[in-house]
């Protein structure tokens, strides 16, 4: 059995390694050092090329349970992108529009794998896989110098090797999960997060139809102004994208909204500082040390039990390190790259990478229980991060992720400091929300266990009571009338108590006596029915609604109080019942003009085993969360005040 349980885990872990290898390959045409790489807007002339990868990504969202096959398709597309290098141009024309879908399919599949691991109980492994995917993708696309040091110019050969090994590593997952992986898609085929994620990536299609002239008309600026400032046009499109995708995330639910914002902040905030650090560490072994150190630290934090506060702490540390570098260079941190300052650059690279890995890993554990991790951390968070980066500096990242040579400006790095602080706050808030949600789920589970235990105990007691007490009551009911005198009344009472006891054993409330039959949930009707020549009932003119079980219990408690008046207050005693509706609860006062009693008698009666007041009145009301106050003095009558919350 243990081997059967470990088989999917090993297969999914092998597929996770394959995904990380694919994410090491910066695809041709990449425009930003982020996890997801899809255009926010295409051109009207190339609408087909823009729409094709988007359609493939949406299909991938709908096929989450077959994520190993999605990952295999991404590996094949990556290989095709390698053989279709501009120098050779080997791939057929119909394949080129599909190539940009390789990275998004990989992202969706890796988060589906992480969600599957968490759903199967391997939370630490799932968090580490999700976090490493972001760290590897950021490093691969932000560190052009690292790639040059690794490959000495032969990048395509390494990429082909990575994609080939990834295909081989995928084989166990494809075989073990050949019939699908339900743990990767607990939210349903057309859940709100999947629809929101599909609409987020599809937003590029309508935005592609907005020409510069139309955009100038919409924002009320001259056309030549947008022609002169292309960055402004891109920033407007990115701002529109941010607003629309944020609304889609909110519609998807509170967890997708919080998770998408947290992951997007972590990626966006880490991109520029990581590029700066890798530029300062070029042509040395330092990049390797920084990469391994950052990924290892982030993975260790994501795997910890206190992953959310730890992720927030390392993100704050990264922000502080960058802020110190900003101050030490007199507002020009790009000097670290110009002067190749290894120690501060390594510190920034390690902390920023660890922050991105830890935040996204922790966020995945918060989203996995609701089944929203792939759609939220893939399309929603990815598009938000791309839009945010383009809003801050839409024209900054030009060229492919593997060939970027420009350094981030000091203003851009200043924004990254505050974004890191915001990502830390978001991670802390998400962790707090997850903690509250888990505590509430635990309380609900405890309540369910308590009810099941009570039901089991009721069933256990029902058997001997059915064999003994109920049979005796039934016998008295049948033959009581034959005794003459009070025998008929005794038979009637035995019949009522038999019905009440059977109702109690079946899980219902004690049935009211014939004197107090009431309409369901209307306490006024129930108590008014208790009126008699010696009992006056005062109640509001309209109904006093109360849940039916509570109304029955309150009625039974009032009946018990009136029964005590008849038995102990004297033959000439009268009783008054006052019902008051107080909005958040109801108050019932039962007062009589009888002989009264010494309050100490209640404790003496309970000690002697006479529990009429303790159980029939106080016990019933306490079970409803209410209170019972009893006031009495010898010769001054008795007053019982009952309050029950709604």
Automatic annotation (TrEMBL):
Q: Which organism is it from?
A: Dactylosporangium salmoneum
**Name of the protein in question:** Histidine kinase/HSP90-like ATPase domain-containing protein
A Pfam entry, by short name: HATPase_c
Residues folding into a coiled coil are: none
Domain named Histidine kinase/HSP90-like ATPase: residues: 556-645
What parts of the sequence cross the membrane? 45-64, 69-88, 94-114, 126-150, 156-177, 189-210, 235-253, 260-279, 285-303, 310-330, 342-368, 375-392, 412-433
Q: Which Gene3D superfamilies match?
A: 1.20.5.1930, Histidine kinase-like ATPase, C-terminal domain
InterPro entries per record: HATPase_C_sf, HATPase_dom, Sensor_HK_TwoCompSys
